[in-house]
C-alpha cells in the first residue's frame, strides 16, 4: 500500500539514500532540503529487471545503480513521489521477469514512498507513471562467456536472442495491459566484454548493433521507449567498466547511464509539460497580465521569480500567482518564465513559460473622418475585427452572416471541436468554418433547412438576435427587459427579435435613429465595430 501522492510529496522527502526530511521545517531542516519546487505532477517509479537495475557493481556488491540515480535526480527536481527497485533481481533473465508479472509476486520494497514493507508487482505497475526495464543480458551471458574459449556460437546466440526478444515483447504487452498510460523505458545493451580479444570485439560489436536494433524495434512497436547506452559506456571504459572479470558498471558508470542516457529522454516526456500552468490576459497593446498555478514543494514555496526575456524582473511572495506587466512595447515579442524558489534556495526545474507578441496601433486609410473611427480602432486593436490587405477597413460595406458569426465568436472567445451542420459553408476557409461551427454549437445561430446563407448581408434585426443569444449564453441567464421595445418599426417582428432589440437599447449597445431601429437595413462594418466594441466592454464589466 502506498500513501497518496499529495501526502507523500508534502510529507516525504526521502532520497534513494533514505534521507528523511520532516514536513515541519526549522532552520536546520531547510538547510538540508535538496528538493526543488515543481509544477509537474509527482510520479511513481518502478524499476524492473536484472542486476543492472538492482545496482550490482564491479566488485559484485549491490549499491547504487542507474535506477537509484534516476530516482534521486527526479526527486531532487521535485518530480518523484515513490521509487521501488525491489522487483529487480540479480541473475534475472527475461523469463524471470515475465514469470513475476504473470504470478503477480510480492517483494520487499527497496526505495521510498511505500507504507508497507512489501508491494505486489501488478499493483505497483498500475500506479506507476515511469517504469524502467533492463532484461536480456542474462539470457545471453552464458553463451558469451564461453565464446572467449570456443568462439561465438552463432546458432545458440540467435536462438537465445529470439527467446529474449519474444519475452521482452510479452513483458511490455503485459505492462501496457495493466497500465496503458505508464511510460516504459527499456535499457539498451552496452559492450560488457571490452577486454576480450580484438577478433571477438569485432563480432561483439556487430552482435550488439543487431541486438540493440531488434530490441529497439520491439520496444517501440509495444509503445515503449528504447534507451541506448552503448556509446555512453564505451566513451570511458576504464572508469565505467574497471574490472575485466566483471560485466557490471561502477557507480560512476551507473551515474553516467542515468544522467546521459535515461534522464534526457525521460525529461522530454509530456509528464514534465508545464505549459498549461501559465496563461496571459491581454489588457491592451502595452499591458498584459500573466498568471500561473501554484507550485508544490516538500516544505513550501517561498517566492516566485518572474523572468521577462531571460532577465529577472520581479520577485513575488508565494501567495501571489499573477503579475501585470505594464509599459510594454507595441509590436514586440516577449517571453515570460516563472521560477519557484523554496526557503533553501532550490529552484524549480521545469518552469511555466509563455511567449506573446503585443499588438501595434492599427490604422486604416479610409476611416479618418468616419463617425465610427474610435470604435473601428478599438475593434481592430483587440482583434475583434480585421481590415483588408490594401490597408482599408471599408466601414460602409455590409457585414455578411458569416462575418457576423465570426466576429461574435472572436469577441466572446468561443471555440468548438464540432462541425456545423450547414451544407453551404464548404467553400469557406477552415478558420471561418470553425467560427461558424462555434456560433452554432453555442446557440448563437440556427440556420434554415440545413443552410446558413453565409454570404448574405446580416440585417440589424438578425444581428440583434445573435447578440441576444450570446448574452444569455455568456451569463447563463435570460435578460429581463426593463420596459417595452423603444422602436416603432419593429412591431411586426416576433417576440425574440423584439426582446433582443430592447436588450441592445437598454444596455446602451445601440441607440437607433429618430425613434427607429431600421431592422431590415443591412449592418455596415462601421456599425458592427460600434456594436461589438460596446458588447465586449459589457462582458469585461
Automatic annotation (TrEMBL):
Record organism: Lysinibacillus boronitolerans JCM 21713 = 10a = NBRC 103108
Annotated SLH domain residues: 359-422, 423-481, 484-541
PANTHER family per record: OUTER MEMBRANE PROTEIN ALPHA-RELATED, S-LAYER PROTEIN _ PEPTIDOGLYCAN ENDO-BETA-N-ACETYLGLUCOSAMINIDASE
Protein's recorded name: N-acetylmuramoyl-L-alanine amidase
Limits of the Fibronectin type-III domain: 274-361
Entry-linked InterPro entries: Cell_Envelope_Struct_Comp, FN3_dom, FN3_sf, Ig-like_fold, SGNH_hydro, SGNH_hydro_sf, SLH_dom
Domain of life the protein comes from: Bacteria
CDD domains in the cross-refs: FN3
Residues making up the signal peptide according to the UniProt record: 1-27
Keywords: Signal
